Amino acid sequence: MSRIIIVGAGINGVTAAIELKKRVHEVVLVDPGPLPHPLAASTDISKAVRAAYGADEDYTALAERSINLWRHWNEEFGTNLYHEVGVMFVRRRKMQPPDFEYESLKLLEKHRLKVARMDTPRLWQRFPAWNPELYRDGVFEIGAGYAESGRAVGTLIERAKSIGVELRSGSRFASIACPRARLEWHL
Ligand SMILES: Cc1cc2nc3c(=O)[nH]c(=O)nc-3n(C[C@H](O)[C@H](O)[C@H](O)COP(=O)(O)OP(=O)(O)OC[C@H]3O[C@@H](n4cnc5c(N)ncnc54)[C@H](O)[C@@H]3O)c2cc1C
User: Probe ligand 1: pick from 7, 18, 42, 70, max atoms within 8 Å of CB?
Assistant: First the structure.
């Protein structure tokens, strides 16, 4: 067992803390707070969650795993932090290689993810508010959606505390004094 200090309780810090605690390490999570921190990138009403990342197959594979984990969290926490409403990218002209939308479509199909090509007639039928004269083509990732990101961080912070992560909210990491990290607490 190691004693691990994690600096910053945004989505990356809090999920790392939970994972390391599950692996039976002693974990201290440090953040100036209040949590979720109002200036943290993770703290927001919503963040898009999608596997459409153009031709970037590594990122698509990671996002595919992450979407499954978001579904799992919805069940585990008994509340919808992730909303599977779909994400659509549209273009004003027919998409083709190497357009982001075209490469996304090809990769999503290769990964057998639920996807629809939004050519003009379908776009017009399914989304009548959109002007099919302007948006002629696109990709609709059906299993994508958005996460209530600030609420997700808050929920995960509570989970981290409940499994024994030591939360130092009100503390700020000040400097690294090589070779050892030095912490200054501003409580
Ligand atoms: C405008 C915007 C829109 C975005 N949209 C999307 C999107 O739609 N979909 C998507 O997937 N991603 C999106 N992102 C990216 C995503 O928000 C970030 O990748 C993610 O939130 C980063 O999380 P983090 O935990 O690394 O950082 P943060 O959430 O920023 O957390 C950092 C934490 O560190 C703490 N901290 C800072 N300094 C110290 C210190 N000295 N000591 C201790 N703690 C400290 C802060 O208080 C904070 O809580 C977006 C980002 C931005 C800015």
Answer: 42
Comparing CA positions, the residue from 134, 89, 125, 82 lying closest to residue 107 is: 89
pTM of the model: 0.91
Distance, in Å, from the CA atom of 5 to the CA atom of 186, rounded to the nearest integer, reads: 16
10 Cβ inside 6 Å of ligand 1: yes
| Comparison of pLDDT for 184 and 11, the residue scoring more | 11
Nearest-angstrom CA–CA distance, 25 and 17: 9
Which of 31, 43, 56, 146 to mutate to test ligand 1, by most ligand atoms within 8 A of the CB atom?
A: 31
User: Got the DSSP string for 77-93?
Assistant: HTS-SEE---EEEEESS
pLDDT tens digits, one per residue of 11-34: 999 999 999 999 999 999 999 999
